[in-house]
Structures are given as C-alpha cells and as structure tokens.
Amino acid sequence: MRTMTIRDIARKCKVGVSTVSRAMNNHPDINPETKEMILRVIEESGYIPNKSARNLKITESDTVAILVKGIGNPFFSGMIDIIQKKAQQHSYACILQPVEPHENELDKALEMVQEKKLKGIIFLGGNFRHHQEKLKKLRVPFVVSTAGRAEDFGVPMAASVSVDDFAESYKLVDYLCRQGHKRIAMLTSADTDLSVGKLRFEGYLKALRDHGIQPDENLIFKLRGDSDHFSITSGYELTKRALTQHCDFTALFAVADTLAVGACRALHEAGIRVGRDCAVAGYDGLELGQFYCPSITTIRQPVEEIAKETADILFDMILDGKEPESRTFQGELVVRESTEPAE
Amino acid sequence: MRTMTIRDIARKCKVGVSTVSRAMNNHPDINPETKEMILRVIEESGYIPNKSARNLKITESDTVAILVKGIGNPFFSGMIDIIQKKAQQHSYACILQPVEPHENELDKALEMVQEKKLKGIIFLGGNFRHHQEKLKKLRVPFVVSTAGRAEDFGVPMAASVSVDDFAESYKLVDYLCRQGHKRIAMLTSADTDLSVGKLRFEGYLKALRDHGIQPDENLIFKLRGDSDHFSITSGYELTKRALTQHCDFTALFAVADTLAVGACRALHEAGIRVGRDCAVAGYDGLELGQFYCPSITTIRQPVEEIAKETADILFDMILDGKEPESRTFQGELVVRESTEPAE
DNA sequence: GTTTTTGTTGGAACCGTTTTCGGTAACGTT
DNA sequence: AACGTTACCGAAAACGGTTCCAACAAAAAC
C-alpha cells in the first residue's frame, strides 16, 4: 500500500499541492476557510507529511539540537529539561540526540546540521580536543557544556560552560586535609587524558602536595576501562579491591557521587563506619548522595545555572549574533555526614 | 557557501553520480579501484551525504528504532544497551529515539516509520490503551516492553514483554504480611489508570485482603502529579508528609526503588530505624537499592532477559515473519536489610 | 569472425516536499 | 470602461540522493 502524499490530499481537496503546503505551514497567503477545510481533510485521512522530503527542501528551520554522549548520566538528565524549556521560550524546536559511545559526536553533529538545518548545537559530554578540522566545518554556533574549555578548541563560534574541576577538586581535598586526613584514597577513571576525571585527579594531587603530603601511588585506584564508567557497581568493586590491599586510608575521594555510593557500601560491608572510621566524598551533587545514609559530602555543580547559561549563550549567538562567551562556574563544597558524622 | 553534493564528488572524480552512489553503498556493480578512488576523494573533501535525500528515495532500510518515553529512567538504560547489541548481531541499525513526556509515542512512531523506513519498533514506556486506530496504521512489527499487555491493544503485529506487576507486587506484600506487618503504607503514583503503578497498587490491595487486612486509605500516599515522577526526592517528600500525620505504619512499600530510597532517608531523619522500626520495600531491582544502607528489599525485574526477549521477539517477526508472541516474566523477590535487619 | 556474456559505467527519472513565479478573480479607483 | 491592487491559488522547478536502464567495452562462447 502506497503511503499517502501531499498530492493525494490536494486531489481530495480539489486544490493544488502548494495550497495544501501553505495550509500546513501556516503560510499567510491562504484563505482561512480553505485552510481549515484542508486541515480537516488531513486530520480525517491521517496523512503524515514526509519529514525527509520536507527537510530536503527547506533551507532553514529554527531548531537546535542537544547532542548527549552518555544519556542516562543523571547529571545530563537534569540539564536537558532546562535547556529544552529555554528553547521553547524562544520558540525554537529542540531535538535531543543521544550519541552512542562508539560514535563520534562531531560526525553526528555535521550530519544533523545539514539534515535538520540546525541553527545551533549544545554538546553534553564528548571530547573535542583533537578535532579542530571538524569543528571548523561545523558552521553553526555551538556550546560545549562540562566537557572541556572553548579555548582548547581553537575555532570560532565555540563557547563552553563548565565548572573548574581542578579548583573544585582541590577545594574538596583541601577540606579533607584540614580535617586532619593524611592518607586519602582516590577513585578515578582509567584514561587520564580524555576524561573529566583528569582535572579532578590533578586537583587532588595539588591539594595533597600543598599540604605537604606526598601522593601515594598505592592509594590511587583507577577504574578498569571496560567496566561501565561511573556506575555504583564499579565504585563498589573498586573499593572492595582497594580494601584487600589494606592500605589504611582514612578518607576516600571518588570523582563521581555514584562511585562514592558504591564505596560507602563496600566500606560498610567491611565493617568500616563511613564518617567515623573513614571519610568519603564524591563529586557532582546528585540527588543520590544527598539521600544516602550517610549523606555524602560532595562538590555540587550548579546544574540549573549551568544549563540556563548554556542555553542563554547559545541563543545569544544565534539570535543576536553575539560573540561566543564562555563561562566557568563555581562549584559548591557540600559537607555532609560522610565526612562529618553528627557528633 | 553551498553545501557539497554527490554531484560535486562525481565531477571531482570524473565519473557519473550513480557510480559515486555505488561506491558509498558498497554496491557490487563497481570496479574496486574506482570505488577506492572515489572513497578517497570523499574522505579528503569531507563530503557528508544528505540523509534526508537518501531517506526520501530509499524504500527499505534494515533499521529498527527504540522509542523511549522517559529516557533517564535507569531501568530503561539497562535495556537499551542489550537491545542495541542484539540489533547489531542481525546487522540492523538501531536508532534510539527519546520521546518527550508531552509527545505522543505513536505519532512519533508513525512519522519515523515513513521517514526512516523502519522495519520494526520497540517501545519502552508509554501508553497504548486508547489508540487502536494509530496502532493499526503502524504497519510494522513492534513490541511494547514493560508498558502493558499486547492483548489490550487489539491489533496484529503487536507483542509485549512484561513482568506481571500485579502478581509480583502481591508476592512482595504477601511477604511483608507474613513478616507480621499489619499496617503497610504504600507510595504510589498519582494517576491510577495509565501508570505502571496501577497494577502494583492492586497487587498490594489484594495481598492485604487475602491476609484479612482492610486497606486503610490513610496509609496510601500518592505522588502529586506535577512532581517529577519516580525521583528519590519525591519519595522523600511524600514520606515526610506521611510522617506528619503519624499513622503508625510498620512497613512501607514504594512502587519504585527510587521512591523507597527517598523514604528510607525520610524515616532515618525522623529517627526511625529502617529495618528494625519500620520495614521498607521497593520495586524494580535497581543498582541503587542494592547498595543503599540498608540495602532495600525489592522485586527484581530481570532486565537483561526482558531486553533480550524483547529484541528476539521483534527480530523473529521481522526476519522470520513469525506471529507476535508476548511474554510475561517472573520477577524475583529479593529480601534485603530494609525488611530483615541482620540479626 | 560473429554473437553472447560479463563487468562497469553514465543519464535521467523519481522520491515528496517547499517555494518561486506568474495567473486569475474580485474589488475599488479614476 | 479601463486600470491598479489585493488576495488567493496552481504549475513547475528545485532539493540531493538512489536506481532503473541503456550503453559500451572486453572477454568468452560459438
């Protein structure tokens, strides 16, 4: 059975195809009655206009896209809603496009720009360090959120919004040191170059050194590359492993709250009281850590503000032709039970 | 600057457009050398074929789609990977399409079928009860996973995979009753008709009655419609509210693990020891509950099997033209600390 | 040496829209 | 009565691919 086209509708309405098109895209040059009649017929016959054909012909389209590498990451989920709402306020369409781990976010972006005629892009996650050429071909404004700094990209129309992971991580570990901890274990990601984990790790090192503590290789635990990245389970297992080589740390810093939760459970099972016997801290400020027992000390990233700013910067570029303007947000050290047990 | 087309490549290679097309779609009728040469030129010039144009012309395309209403739901995240892997094994492309809460998953599906020439669809979440007409227009096989039973749809090509929420919920509450609990509070969703919560709620009622317990209105707490659905925070707040009207329940059953986590924290803050003073149980079997302190009793849904079966059923229909065959899985009651404190 | 086959190619039609570019009718103005 | 406006409409040309078909050369079969 052939699928219905605009011509079928035109025939059914005894009008030209252009009129039907006008009716659908509320074009001014059409008699309101004809329009209504056409729309009714369309409704009745369940005609669905072919988007490919439309996108092929169209030259511009007031839409932006959010490309998310690692949907499922609760940190991103929080941002997405906010960004979409912003887009709506500007009456822009906003399409959410997950990027699979093995896909390249830039190739995807390039495709979508010409397919969907995007006016702008927001990247959540992903890596952009070694892709200048592709970034340059992307001729629309875009902003990279919490995945690197725009300065590193070396291309115009690039803005970034991020939290200074190095400084915040430093802040947290500094706090732990001031609490008197000398042996602070670290749970971080495997590949140091690409990951968000890198800066957080460096902040950790710096803080230790500034407190006259020599970082101890034996206290640094890296995720195996294959385990799925920042899951609770991997935090749990990594900590279990850490505990087998009794290296007597008194505090543990995980680069993500999820990992910290897993760590807490592992410690708990080993009979170590989190907060009293061993401090635990995470990073991100997820709901999760706030409601855990004990609640988990963390660096809260201002998700809402980050999301808002990300969207604002993008639309400033799109609508007002403003220059890309990057921002770095402050995180907030949120001290909770896992490092300061109630009395 | 005009965007590059297949004709530009053809010109640059001094061949016809059809030859370029053949090179890209590894069509057999082409000289391997020409092909290689063309591909090299394409690579060098950074040409990106226009997907809309392609989709417009193409008549079929070995792809399936997963339409997820409520991406971010960790239960779905777990399934997605597995399904995608299955698709890959059949060398089918698999596109992941989030559906916004306000969008209708069926309209989206209809669009995509004609736009992307889908061979099949997997729905995660969503509601299909009152949409027979649209389901009928969807002329490809599809399977609905954990969002209702195929029998209710009344259309061919529809399969469903689910867990018998009613029975499992019954199983859990029955267990609580056998533990001696008489006053069991329930945390459930607002709208009883559409939601997964409904069957779980009914299982709760039935179990109580079978134990000679008259369900108490005052122990049933429903989420406000506006709060985002099954978040930890809403579980927390709902429980807080429950506690203000001291209705002295000795157990609490939440329709989702996330809610249960929130509940645990609220109880904890009220000085009530979860497990000892009050039992808490959830539903889903998320990582979260397993690692919480105390770990949370739940009904574990066999995510992996469900996902595998969902994919298998779909591909059986697509590849072998099999009849839609629905399945209902057993859940598993996982008793943990929140209902049975260690000694 | 002619015919058939095989392998490779290019031309052109087509997919279903939007949009340009007139065209027509109705109306008000001189 | 002739004209300029205005409001609405339809035919046809794109958009950028794929694919059918005819063409041609070289190789194989007779």
Brief overview:
The structure is a homodimer of 343-residue chains. Chain A has helices spanning 6-13, 17-24, 32-45, 51-57, 74-89, 105-116, 132-137, 165-178, 197-210, 232-244, 257-269, 287-291, 303-320, and strands at 63-69, 93-99, 120-124, 142-145, 158-163, 184-188, 220-222, 251-254, 279-281, 298-300, 327-329, 332-334.
Account of the protein in words:
Two copies of one chain form a homodimer. With 343 residues, chain A is α/β, with parallel strands linked by helices. Chain A is built from 13 helices and twelve strands. In chain A, the strands form three sheets. Chain A has a six-stranded parallel sheet with strand order 2-1-3-4-5-11, sandwiched between helices. A four-stranded parallel sheet of chain A has the order 7-6-8-9, sandwiched between helices. In chain A, helix 5 (74-89) links the parallel strand 1 (63-69) and strand 2. In chain A, helix 1 (6-13) crosses helix 3 (32-45), helix 2 (17-24) crosses helix 3 and helix 5 runs parallel beside helix 13 (303-320). Chain A binds chain B through residues 1, 3, 46, 48, 50-53, 55-56, 71-72, 74, 77, 84, 96, 98, 100, 110-111, 114-115, 133, 137, 139, 231-233, 236, 261-262, 264-265, 268, 287-288, 290-295, and chain B through 1, 3, 46, 48, 50-53, 55-56, 71-72, 74, 77, 84, 96, 98, 100, 110-111, 114-115, 133, 137, 139, 231-233, 236, 261-262, 264-265, 268, 287-288, 290-295. The first copy, chain A, binds a DNA duplex (30 and 30 nucleotides) through residues 3, 5-7, 10, 15-19, 21-22, 25, 27, 29-31, 34, 49-59.
